[in-house]
Amino acid sequence: MMKYSALKKYASNLALIALLLALTAVPALVGVGYGVLASVGYFRPAGESGFTLRHYAALWESGDLFRSLGFTLGIAVVATVLSFAVALLLAISVRGASRLNRWNRFLIQTPLPFPHLVVAVFTVLFLTQSGLVPRLLYALGLIASQESFTELVYDRFGIGILLVFLWKEVPFLAVVMLAVLGSASARYEAVAQSLGATPWQRFRFITLPVLTRGAVPSLVLVFTFIVGAFEVPLLVGPTYPPMLSVLTVQRYSAANLDFRGEAFALSTMIAALMILLTGIYAATESRKAIRKI
Does the residue 51 lie in any domain? Predict the structure, then answer.
């Protein structure tokens, strides 16, 4: 009787998992499948009904793909590295149990509830040359004119994009690192201190490696999110070169339906890039796990 009850519970759990996968994976797979088919010539609205790679060839020949890809990867790498560095400093500086550190940890987490879109809108309102900050500085006589304020939004280097992602990703990574520091790292550091290790030695050989290993999954998540982000580069990024997601929407919104095939090709390549990055990380972690066995 107990065996039958256990089997029934197991079957019920499998049914719930299958339902969850159907509700989440199937719509995504349908969308990806439609995009892949449209990118290779099966896009009825444009009068296509046969296999072709001309949309990929058109992107290759235009040069826009490589400029956008380079800009996107550059922004993602710089934003991820800077977010990690700042979050590392914050996590180490507020790790104590004092009342001030608890208050600082609360302040670090305050940006988390705000969506990226809201932060991007506030960046436009405050940091454009016609925004509130340049107006205030001009009213105080600190700058000669609003136009003399450093261009932080819509600039060709993507500084506005970096500022938005730093504002959002630094608190996220800091919270992750604080969780790591609150577990194994503290015990290891206490042992090292009892053995005579200096503060720098404890940081270099214990804290930093533990934090890096603990934060790697979150860093991969942040990097892939930035690569596929759309609303932030659309609102605060440069007109040219656009990030890959913005270039995709530009192609899809064009009056000429031929460009929609290029949009589907771009979206397919973005999805493939994210899957590749995630796969590389998963394969690396699997090898590490096998070596430990």
Answer: no
Q: Which helix (H) or strand (E) holds 58?
A: helix 54-62
Distance between CA atoms of residues 258 and 152, nearest Å: 35
Alpha carbon distance 166, 80 (integer Å): 8
Residue 261: CB atoms within 10 Å? 25
Tokens of 278: 């995630």
Domain assignment of residue 144, given as a range: 72-242
Domain assignment of residue 88, yes or no: yes
Domain count, the chain: 1
Distances (CA, A) of 213 to 185, 207, 216, 217: 11, 10, 5, 8
pTM: 0.81
Which pLDDT score is estimated for 27? 78
pLDDT in tens, 167-192: 999 999 999 888 887 766 667 777 77
Cis before 113 (ω within 30) = no
User: CATH code at 97?
Assistant: 1.10.3720.10
